[in-house]
Every structure is written in C-alpha cells, then in structure tokens.
Amino acid sequence: MTIAVAVSGGVDSLYALLSLKGVFGGPVHDVIALHARFRDESLKDPVPGLAERCRDFGIPFHVLDLRRVFDEKVVHPFMNAYVHGRTPNPCALCNRHMKFGQLLDAAEQLGADRLATGHYADVVEHPVYGSVLRSGKDVKKDQSYFLGLVPRERVRKLLFPLAHLTKAQIRSIMADHGIAVPLSQESQEICFVPNDDYRAFLTASGVSLPGGGPMVLADGHVIGKHKGLWQYTEGQRRGLGIAWSEPLYVIGKDRSRNALILGDARSLATRSCVASHLNLFVPSNLWPNELFVRVRYRQKAVPAEVRIVGSDEDATRMLIRFETPQIPTAPGQLAVVFDADGCLLAGGILCKDN
Q1: Which label site among 29, 43, 51, 325 has the fewest CB atoms less than 10 Å from its CB?
Q2: Catalytic residue at 54?
Q3: Which residue among the candidates 94, 273, 343, 351 is catalytic per the annotation?
Q4: Sign of the Cα pseudo-torsion (41, 59, 141, 296, in order)
Q5: Distance CA 160, CA 119 (A)
Q6: Is the entire prediction scored with pTM above 0.85?
C-alpha cells in the first residue's frame, strides 16, 4: 500500500511523513510526499527545506500548484461571507475542497491508496458506524471540528499519524532525532490572512464591503453606530465602542436594516440554532441518544438534542437545541455533532434560521 503524505513544512506534517517511513521505529510504509501551493509564499518558502528532508530519507517529493482552485474554493467564499454579514470558517472549506478534495485526488493519480496528514484527529473502525472520524488525543490541538464538512466517502482513505500523540511529544521526538523543520513557527489561524488580521485583509482585497449603520437594542432603540456588520461577530463584547450602564454583547445582525443588535448578558444566551449544507458521517438512525455539539472551535462539545429535517439523503436542515444556554451562534461557522466518545456524526454550516 502506498501512502501519500501532505506536508506543509511544519513539524506536525513532517512527523507524520517520517513516522510512516519508519524513521522513529514503527512499521515502514511506501510513502510519497505532497506539498500543495495554496498561495504565494510571501515569507519563507518551505519547498527547498522539504525537498532536502525528503532526499535525506529517500522519499519521492511532489509540489502541486493549487493556488487558482484555492482562491476559487476558499478565499473568495471567505470574502463573500463577510460581505453578507456571516462569519466564515475557511479551514473547514479548505479541508473539504482542497486537502481532502484536490490533494486526495492528486494523491490517487500518483498511485497512492491513502492520504495522511498532520491533523490532530483520528479515523477508527466503529462496530456500528463503520469508518468514522474521531477527536484526537491532544484536546488543546484537536482539529476534528474542522473536518466536519469532509465527505463521508473520503474518510476511509485517510490516515492521521498524530491521533494518539500530543504536540509536546511530537516536538520532543523530532528534537531527539535532530530533524530540522523547514517552518519552525506555529501556523497562523487563517493561513492566507497576514497576521490573522481579517479586517485589514478584506479592506486590502478591494471587495465591496457594506458600510456603517445603527447599533440597536433588541427593542429597536438606537444607541450608537457600527462600522460595518462584517467587522463584528455574535457573542462579541470587546471593541464595540459604546458606553452603557452594563456590558453589552452582539446578539445578532439585521442585514435588512444594516443594524447590529446588542444586548446585555441576560439576553445573550441562546438555546437553539440551525445548520444547513449538511454532511452526515453516520446515518441518523444509528445515532446514540446522547449527543454533543460544537459550534465554535475553542468550545467544548456540549449536550444537545439534534433533529434532521428530511431524510438523510435529502436533509435540508439540522435543528439543534442545547441542554443549557450558549453564547449566540455565528452564521457561517460550523456545527458539528459528536457522540460521547468523540466520533463525528454530522456537520453543517450555521445559518440564520434560528
């Protein structure tokens, strides 16, 4: 079996590659390395360093130019979401369309049977679900949430060598073997947004962004002016620039009035949300009674009731009701359903119909 390994130049993907090659004492697999260019390398180009590491260990190395498709499938939808007042999750789209879409297709064209990456996640054979994604061991680095839109049929072709390791363990192993990493710094939150400053990125992009409008309370009382709905997200408290008798939060956006809706802590929490563009990993009739949902990356999955509207084959909505009140969900972000063991059951994109 030939395994293609997606390598970015960072420590995680390089460890994944070398571990499958047997460098650290495990089984030796037939591996090839793939590096995808998703954007122009404005700082340090990892390709020379990756090519050198691959030569050191006798691993075939391929570079794919996917910049045009990345712009089409990830960057442009990211900008369009902000124009329409949503808070997008570009990593989820990248995983669906690029890493486990275009890159997996390229791997198979090169003769690979599986694609491995440096994600902190796992693929397991479940006695009821079959091949299914599951959360990784390192709870601080677990990336299973970002895999919520990866098509179910692709899961069985994936490998995640970091599934049972922590970041600290990986760094230690690489250091003990004296292996230099082309990109030693941690990757930033959104790879194509310099300094993680999405406001500056959008402003410089030339996209037509909506202007300012009223800040209003839930009863319609105007208390200030916002700088553009795209600059705010649900649940936000800091940076509102409004003086009030008590802390205010963003509890919603009304695009029809170009209004930013604010409220106090009592009006902040929500008990329900809706997701569309569904991706079911496990048929809903096989789901356990106890379900957990994450609607933000840095959030623990919380107990919830979930109902699918329509049959699994043509489901249009996923209705979610939390057991306890939560911070308002942000349209454009992901909603991912887990079981008690961290297996992914379904994913979808949060929408405003809640």
Answers
A1: 43
A2: no
A3: 94
A4: positive
A5: 6
A6: yes
